[in-house]
Each structure stands twice: as structure tokens, then as C-alpha cells.
Amino acid sequence: MRQFTRTVLAASISYALFVPATHAESSKDSNTMKSTQSTSSSSDDLNQEVVITSDKLEAVNGDKAVYSGNVKVTQGKKSIAADTMTLHQQDNVAVAEGNVKMTDGNVEATSDKVTNNLNDDTFSLENTQYQFTCQQGRGEAAYIAKTGQAMYELEDGSITSCPEGDDSWRLVASDIKVDQDEEMATLINPRFEILNVPVAYFPYLTLPIGETRKSGFLFPSVSYGSDDGFETEVPYYWNIAPNLDLTFTTQYIQERGVKYNADFRYLSSSFGEGQISGEIINADSNYDDERRWAMQFEHSGLLDKHWLLDVDYSKVSDNDYFQDFSTDIGSRDEGYLTQSGTIAYRSANWDAALKVKDFQVLEDDTEPYQMAPQLAYNYYVPLTRHLNFDVKSQATRFIIDDASQPDATRLHIEPGFTIPLNSTWATWTTEARYLSTYYHQDIDNITDSTLQGELSSEVTRNIPEFRSHAGIYFERPLDWFGGYTQSFEPQVQYLYIKNTDQSDIYNYDTTILQTDYYGLFRDRKYSSIDKIAAANQVSYGATTRFYDSDYKERANIAFGQIYYIDKDTKITDDDDASSYSSWAVEADFNFSDNLFYHGGVQYDVDGRAMQLANSTIEYQMPKGFVQANYRYVSLDYIEDNLSYDDYSTITSDGISQAGLVGTYQITNRWSTAGQYYYDTTEHVSMEWLASVKYSSDCWYMTVSYSKQLTGWDGDTVGGTSHAEYDNNVGINFGIQGFATNKRNESAQKMLDDSDMSIEYGRPFYLSN
């Protein structure tokens, strides 16, 4: 939420010209006069004595006193210096003229003339230049008047956050009214100037000027992109209530039209917090004049200590929205938008939840199932000290708009007994479960006759499961680098799940899980229950960790494997495959809190080749970082684990991608960021970004160039097909100070704000 600082505008130029009535009939040179007289002002400075010095004093008894030559008046933090000062004793009005300089501790001003009514502490300044001393802000005004305790009026005034001598930008208005109690400034006929050239005009403008949230316009921003041309954003902030606010932004895009964005936020101690965001462009000139929009509703709340309400709903008008617009709505990283809502109740021994879920897939010809709805109930209770009982259950209705696929109702209940044994150096958990599932699949009306013949309308599936997992913790001191501690944590698990024919059950919400080291010890290979993989296997592995003398984890290495007692439960098309899974290895290192490394490998013992691999090394500096990363997925792994009909639309020979990411703060004003990713399989660049930013005291500008792989001009990846790219040159200009301050933002922010599809990640898993 962005606001002006409190001491905006010349309105806060509040000085004391608090001169006591003086009785003198003759001229005096080099005068120093003191008085403890105070006025009715509530200022603490008014209760302090006034000290006036001057080279000369001429006074007429009962009429006026004229001070001249190096006149200086001080009272507390307030001071005034001028060539002459006249005190009109009858009206108790003081007038200072000629090279007038004022300060009150918060602001300094130079003025031609100051008139101060000592009875009510109102004053006026003519032809004034002012500078805030504690905060950004300076300007000038033809006339400034203090009309109340915290009310000020400026005529022909200006304000800028630029330092003296820098007129990069300013706000100029015919009239400016400031209410410091309300922390608001009202500008009449304001114009926004860059290098003294007007670029925007408003008949009326209100601005927040305090530390608290206030309604008003925020500073606009201007940018240029080679795809969309010039863009201008003008935001307005509405502080509806202490727990409610709305930011409305009008965005002009040269090649598309006018786009409106709104973000409404709320916070309640009784039902939680949330945000509603929306965007719309009525006729996109670059998209056949179609209306395009996006919206998102997020809510999370705890009610009465037991009830939970969670909503995450986002939707866009078309699949190209994220390619054409920069937006914080939803996320395109996973290729879909989530539309879900959950209400749950939690008690000491049970919980229940009602959930609905749908997806908007950002690809053509893909239709997901809707969960409409799911009712889940879980019960858990300790029977004895070392015996627990629990029941997991759910009833789910799945529907889909695709007539070739069936709707379905799924009922699932899963009772289980668990024996937990724990100590400071070992754990051993044994559990037995019984998985019972019933399906009613609406296959009578589906248009896919092949699928209709494979599925059954009514299916009952009962599968027993047994699992026993044990781990031991060893620790020893090491005389390395001043005293390290090493832990050794072996673990072993036996898992049995009965092999059951499930070919007549369709897949509604189930995907295969990645089998990294930590996945070796899961009891399921799939994310949900449409497919429950048979198992008769032993998983074994170990982790070793290294801690320094402050017990900060500096490194860990984990490795493990599965031995399939029943080789038929191994997912492979190779009849000659061994009874062993791939080796899974994970490693993390932290060298002196500057150099970090993370790597993971899955090595196929049958094919004697890597299936999966990832590696990241990052060096962090006080002013930036540089990261190199690599990821690999073999074609065999893709074919064994993904259910695509034609893998040529994804890859020709697996995935092998290398990347380089970095940011650096060159000077206090200059910073740079960049990233580059290259596909070593297809020998093409995937995407790259180069960005340079300059930040002054009152404005900033970012120049960037990006190039993203958007697809291939043929039906397959590689071969005779050619890569297609989206190239974009961007220039972004904004204002520093008051409502915005991006100078202190790190260069990392340029990466976070970019629209690159591959985001910077910090994949380091160390306990510190």
C-alpha cells in the first residue's frame, strides 16, 4: 500500500515569529532582546523564550518596532533570519522581509516575505522555496498560508522528491490544501511535469500524505514494450476501513486499449482474510477486439477455533492471457488455474471437510474432471500408549464436460491401526490398513465405445496394506575445521500392498508421484486412489549430515534404493529388469554461507544410465548472486511414467536443460539481472532475459530484453520443425519517493517481476 509521507508540501512550513510587544523610543544597535511571553498556540516551542538579535532597532512607542541588519529570531527549534522585520504592536503582527530563511526542525524555507499574526499563530509566506529536512520533498509556492492548527493552503505550488538542482519531475497545482490531522492533500488543477514539460493533467487530485493509509491517487508509471508499445498505469488507493482497502488501476496499452485492474483486500478477526482481484479490457485491439479478463478470489480463515474456510478460485478469459499480459492473478507455472473451495471442521479426535475443485487448463483440447463435491471424514484415537486407530473416508462426485469420458461417484473408507515406538535415537512405526473403494461410473452414455467396453459401471475394490518403517540416529564428533559433528541416519521400510486388478477403473484425479530419495519411503506411488500400485518391497537408505561448532547444518548426503521382493510390482516394460529400483541420491552443501550446492540423481541400475538429475550451484555476494543449474529427464523415464500417446510433441530425446541466472548491484544507482536457459537435447535457447536498472533519488528506469520459446512450427519437437520465439524489448519508468520507493529494492526483484516462465528457485534443503 503506497502513501505520501506526512510532511508533504509547503503546507507543513509552520514557523514561529513569536515576537513580544516592544516599547522603545530610540534606536539601538547590536540589540539582543529576550522575552518569555507566549501565545495561545499549542506548540511546545511557544512556551520557550524568544530571542531576537539584529544590527539595528527602530521603535515607535505603541505603534511598531523595526529590526534591521542580520535579523535573527529563535524559539526552541524554530528560527527565522531576514534583512528586516517589523512588529506591528497594535495588531500583534510581525512581518519579515528580504532574504527570509526559516526552519522549524522539519523543513527549511527561503521566502521574500513572511507575515505572522501572533494572536492566532496564522501566517503567510510569499514566493517561497522549501525543503523537508527529515524526509524527501521540496518545492516552491507563490503564496503559502497557515489557516488553522494543521490546515495549510498553497497557491501556485509544486512538490517533488528530487534533490535540489534536479527537476526530473514535479507536481504543480494552482491550489493545494493540506490537512495534516487528516493526512490528506487536495490539489486543484494539478499537472505532472517531467523536465518541466507537462505530461499529465487532472482537474482534481487527492493524495495521502501520512504514515497511515489514506485514500488518494498513487504515482503513475510509464513503460514501453516492443509487443504492446507504450503503457501507462494510474493507480488509485481507497482506504475503505482499517480492515478494508481497494486499489483501482487504469492501464493504457497502446496496441491493445484501456485495461482496468482492481484489487480488494479484507481482514477480519472473526472469519479470516482474503483478496478479490479482477482485470478487464473490453476490446483488445491486438486480439480481434475481444473482451478479455481475469479474476481471482482467495480466502483463508479460522472460525470459532474449529471451522476452517479456504477458497482459491482464479479464471481467465482465454488460454493466451498470461502470454499477453503481465499479471499477479493465478499462475501459469503449472499450466492450469486452480478453482477450489474447502470448508472444514476440526475437533480433538475427528475432522470433516467439504471440498469442491476444478481446473482451468491453459492448453487446448484438454478437459479436467471437476470434484463436485468431495466430503471427507477422518477419525483418530489412541487405544493404548503404543496403539492408535484411525479411519480415513471420502465420498466424491466427478463430472466432466467431455462426453467421451464418464462421470463417476467414488466412495472410499480406509481404517488402520498404527504402532508407534519412538525414542531420542530411534523410531519404529508399524501400520496395517484396509483400503475399500466403491465406484459408480456413468458409462452408458459416453461416446467412446472402446472405453465403454473397458470400464465397469459398478466396481468394488478391497486392498490390504501393511507397512513397517524404522530409523536410527547416530552421532559422532569430527575434528574437522574446528570441530564438526556428523550424524548417520539409516532407515528401512517394508511395504506390502496386495496386487489387485484395477483395469476397469478410470482415472479421475490421480497422477504418479516423483520417486526421489524421500519418495522411496512413501506408501503410495500415486497422488490419489484411482490407482493403488501393488507392492511387496523393502526400501533402504541413509542420510548423513555435517554440523559446524554452532550446530548449523553445512552438508547432507542421502542415498537409497528399493528391492522388489515381487518383481512384477516394479513399473517397467523390460522383462529382464532386475529386482532393484534406481539409486536415488540427494546432496546439499553450504560453504561459508556464500556458496551453496544442491544436487539429485536417480541412476537406473538396469539400463546403467541416469533417469533423472538436477544440479544447482549458487554463489551469493553482498550485492548479488550467480546461479548455474541443470536438469535432466531421460526419454525412458518419460515413457514409463507419463501416459502420452505421442511423446514427439513433448521431446525427441528426453529433457536436458542448462541455465544461468544472476543479479548484481553495480553501484548504489545501477543494477543488473539476467538469466539464460539452453536445451542441450534440441540445441535451442529456451529463454533469456537481460535487464539493467538505474535508480536516482527521485526516479528509476529499467531497460530489458527477453526472448522466450513459445513452440514449434511443426507437429513435433525438433527434427524438421523450427523453434518459435517471442521477443520483447521493455522500458519501464517510475517515480521514487512519497508513494513509491524502489531504490532500495534488490536486483533480485527484477527477476521476480519478470514474466519469464522459468522462475528463479532457491532449492537448498539445509536445517539452519
Short description:
The protein has 768 residues and is an all-beta fold. 3% of the residues lie in helices and 58% in strands.
What does this structure look like?
This protein has 768 residues and is mainly β. The protein folds into 3 domains: 10-217, Lipopolysaccharide (LPS) transport protein A like domain (lipopolysaccharide transport protein A fold); 369-572, no CATH class; 582-759, Porin, CATH 2.40.160. 3% of the residues lie in helices and 58% in strands. It has a 26-stranded antiparallel beta barrel. Strands 1, 2, 3, 4, 5, 6, 7, 8, 9, 10, 11, 12, 13 and 14 form a 14-stranded antiparallel sheet that branches. The relative contact order is 0.06.
What does the average pLDDT come to? 84
Molecular shape? elongated
Q: Could you tell me the strand content as a percent range?
A: over 45%
Please count the beta strands (DSSP E, at least 2 residues each): 42
* SSE class: mainly beta
Fraction in helix:
under 10%
- CATH superfamily descriptor of the largest domain: Lipopolysaccharide (LPS) transport protein A like domain
Tally of DSSP helical segments: 4
Largest sheet: 26 strands, antiparallel, barrel
Low-confidence stretches: 1-42
Domain module count:
3
- Identify the CATH class of the largest domain: Mainly Beta
Q: What is the terminal separation in angstroms?
A: 33 Å
